[in-house]
Amino acid sequence: MRFANADEESSLMPRPPTIVFVGSFRREARDGTVGGAIFACRSLLDSPLSEQVRWRLIDSTLLSWPPPPPWRRALAAGGRIARFSLQLLDPRVRGALIFVAGGSSLAEKGVMVLLATACGKPAIITPRSGHLVDDLARSAQLRRFARLIFASAARVMCQGEVWARYYRALGALPPERFAVVPNWIDTRPYTALPRPTAAATGAPVRVLFLSRLERAKGVLDLVEAVARLGERERSAARIVIGGEGPDRGAVEQALAQRGVAGCCELAGWLKGPDKLQALAAADLYVFPSHVEGFPNALLEAMGAGLPVVATDVGAVRELVTDGETGLIVPPQNPEALAAALARLIGDAALRQRLGAAARAHVVRQHDVAAGWRRVHAVIEAALAERVGARRTWRGLRAVAPAGVEP
Q1: Strand 123-127 relative to strand 178-180: parallel, antiparallel, unpaired?
Q2: Are 250 and 308 in a shared domain?
Q3: Do residues 209 and 167 both lie within one domain?
Q4: Is residue 405 part of a domain?
Q5: Which of 154, 190, 213, 374 is 20 to 30 A off residue 285, Cα-Cα?
Q6: pLDDT tens digits along 74-86
Q7: Under 8 Å CB-to-CB from 52, ≥6 apart: which residues?
Q8: CB 361 within 8 A of CB 325
């Protein structure tokens, strides 16, 4: 009997499938931001998933904010579509994983989905922006195109159940086409942070906000909420506003006009060790955003053991259980935000209970170890299907029910 040698055995082993991965792979954008899509894509590359799949990367990072002129974005998109098409001609390429943001991103990435499907190679599309809802609401043409894309894709990978229902309803598509993969983080740097914080020794309760300074992130709602706190709560708290953005001037003006500049600190961008230090020093985290998909910022704060006050947007309710792992308030409602902040500022035991439960939940459900395995399962399911150009035309007949909102 003849036994195969090591080289022969390795040649008989099934090779990992080659997948074109379209997403954000830079460490940060030019303005210093590290968005959720950048983290999600980079963390997949750095995870054991890269041992199960061979990636062909096409970077689509938005490098600046505000975005470049439309003609420059169109040229860049055309170049990426051309590179994507060339990859599809390689017989070793089995399929595509495509991250998509807002409306213009959907237009570009949708063309990629159609090209892959026409070539018989399954495409997985994963919408990652809450702003896409507004884009779809404003444009009937974009809604029709979205229905076509979701009908053509082998899988639509959604950040939460609320998003799966919304995108499924756009085209009355079968539920098995949609896979729910909640966001993930590497929990280790956050669970290593100490708890409790200095507030236990009588220091001011530190309320932390980390995001871009723009109206859609709710930073002006936060300023108004601080102004509505009672004198007792304001004197017991220190509000740390971390971030930069187009509305920094408006924030400074609002702080001065509402007379709360003395209890608020504009800390600028907090990244890397500075962000970890800010989370370690904080006693609670506030997230007053108007629009979101599935916010990584909340995952990081909760992983650090912080109780959170968050607005009811996107898939936040699938992450935060009101009264158990944090407090949820309506978006764009400074009065409700102030009431929730006052409740936590004045109750150290509640902060400790919510923070401990938040950390346990994130470690159990949202660590990158669970995230990459879920993504791998979606890729394997998509590759197991036969796809072709006929699927593309099903989207043209799909009818979207009216009034669907996430």
Answers
A1: unpaired
A2: yes
A3: no
A4: no
A5: 374
A6: 899 999 999 999 9
A7: 16, 376
A8: yes
Domain holding 136, by residue range, is: 6-184+371-397
E strand map for 188-325: 205-210, 237-242, 264-268, 284-287, 308-311
Give the whole-angstrom CA distance, residue 183 versus residue 44: 11
| Paired tokens of 222 | 């936060």
Residue found by looking up tokens 């995108």 in the block: 167
Q: Which two tokens stand for residue 275?
A: 């962000």
85-113 pLDDT, tens digit each: 999 999 999 999 999 987 788 999 999 99
Cβ(86)–Cβ(119) below 8 Å? no
Return the amino acid letter for 297. A
Q: How many CA atoms lie within 13 A of 376 on its CB side?
A: 18
pLDDT in tens, 43-52: 999 999 999 9
Model's pTM, two decimal places?
0.85
Whether residue 77 sits in one domain with residue 149:
yes
pLDDT of residue 223: 98
Q: From residue 404, how far is each of 137, 155, 168, 314, 332 by CA, in Å?
A: 10, 20, 10, 13, 21
Report how many domains make up the chain. 2
